[in-house]
Amino acid sequence: MNLEEMLLEKKEVLAAKWFDIVLSSYPEATQKIWKSNSDKFTNPVGITTQRVTKELFDLIIEWKDVDAIAKTIEDLIKIRAVQEFAPSRALSFVFLFKKLLRDEFMQVLKKEGRLDELLAFETRIDNLGLIAFDIYTKNRDLITQMRIEEVKRSHHMLLRRVNEIEDASAKGAGQV
Fold first, then answer.
1. Nearest CA among 96, 94, 90 for reference residue 137
2. pLDDT tens digits, 49-106
3. Could you give the CA distance from residue 106 to residue 168 in angstroms, rounded to a whole number?
4. How far, rounded to the nearest angstrom, does the alpha carbon of residue 105 sit from its chain's CA centroid?
C-alpha cells in the first residue's frame, strides 16, 4: 500500500487531528466551544475550519486542481487574516500537517525503505504553504486598505462637522 492509499485509509482520523491542530492555536475555552458546537450560524469559525481541513485533505492527496485548493484554503485563511495572529502563527497549521504525517507514517515508511514517498508528499504541503502565504498576504493587504479607507472617511466626516460648526458660529456672531 502506497502513502496516498494509507492516507485515504486514515482520512477521517487524520482530518480530525488536523482540525485539532488548527484549533490548538486558540484558547482552550474557544477550542471546546468550536469542537462541540455544530451549528454553522453560532459557530461559523469552527464549522469552516472543520470543513476546510476535511476538504483540503482530499485535495492535497489528489493534487490535481490548484485553483480548488486555493479556493478551499482561502476560507480558512480569511478568518485567520482578520484575527490578531502573527503571519507565522496564522499559517502554522499548514506546516504542522507535515508533522502530523511524519508522526503517523515516518517509522513505517522508514522501516520499509519508502521514506522518499513521504518526502515527495511533503512537497505538496510546502506548496500549500506558499499558496496560503499568498492568500494571507492578499487578505491582510485588503484589511489594511479597508482600515485606511475607514480612517479617511472618519477624518472627512470630522472635518465636515468642524466646518459646519464654524459656519454656524460665524453666522451667529454676525447676528449680534
1. 90
2. 999 999 999 999 999 999 999 999 999 999 999 988 889 999 999 999 999 999 999 9
3. 77
4. 25
